[in-house]
Design brief:
- There is one protein chain.
- The protein has 223 residues and is of the alpha/beta class.
- The chain has a domain of 146 residues: Rossmann fold.
- Strands 2-1-6-7-8 form a five-stranded parallel beta sheet, with helices on both faces. Strands 3-4-5 form a three-stranded antiparallel beta sheet.
- The chain starts with 11 loop residues before the first helix and ends with a helix.
Length: 223
């Protein structure tokens, strides 16, 4: 049927497996660490980390939604204060500084909760001179990924790789400018939302994130 997107991935783990196959063909500057954007990026990132023999962690970022349209991003913030603001959207919609600060304060609360839940006392990252692979289950506007890149750049990573299963084609130019490598498997012109390209796109709960992280941390302690 015209205009209906084809389902590309069975689920997030299948998407991660395919990403992992592509990433194994890349020679990285140093042994990579995979930082997944919670929560949907974690099952994808787990498969990527397995494929490239990398550590797995999460990077807490939150979208700043337009007032009255929370799913429409006007920017995003990260746990360490780094942020990305889409000035075109903010100016076009006449969003005030007060509205922007209100959204930032509101999302900062959830950001802190997630960071505490997923990483406990381990709030910092040791990324100096490392290759960082930033992974999500897909991108619509790229706002949260741009905030993640800003956060990682503050921590002096040697190489930043953005890897996602699906995103609109117009994001490629933007991400090739701000990351060292950009890998996106499918860039459909009929992009509407990330979920439309998955057969199974269930909500990822905190418990699933914690279980995945615990599995990788136990593996790291063995080796």
């Amino acid at each position: 049927m015209a205009g209906v997107a084809m389902k590309i991935f069975e689920n997030r783990r299948a998407a991660g497996v395919e990403l992992g196959v592509r990433l194994r063909q890349i020679r990285f500057a140093s042994r990579p660490i995979v930082l997944a954007l919670p929560r949907g990026g974690v099952p994808v990132g787990a498969e990527v980390a397995e494929a490239v023999n990398a550590e797995l962690d999460v990077i807490a970022v939150r979208k700043l939604g337009v007032p009255g349209q929370p799913e429409f991003a006007m920017g995003a913030i990260s746990w360490n204060g780094a942020s990305y603001l889409n000035r075109e959207v903010i100016e076009a919609l006449g969003i005030s500084d007060r509205e922007l600060q209100s959204a930032r304060a509101r999302e900062s609360i959830e950001l802190e909760r997630r960071n505490a839940a997923y990483r406990g006392a381990q709030r910092g990252y040791s990324l100096n001179d490392k290759t960082v692979i930033l992974v999500d289950d897909g991108m619509a506007t790229g706002a949260t990924m741009l905030a993640a890149i800003a956060a990682v750049k503050q921590l002096h990573a040697r190489e930043i790789v953005v890897a996602v299963p699906v995103a609109p084609p117009d994001l490629r130019v933007k991400f090739e400018q701000v990351a060292d490598r950009y890998l996106c498997i499918h860039e459909p012109s009929n992009f509407g939302s990330v979920g439309q390209f998955y057969e199974y796109f269930e909500q990822v709960e905190d418990e699933a994130v914690l279980a995945t992280l615990a599995h990788f941390r136990s593996k790291s302690s063995i080796h």
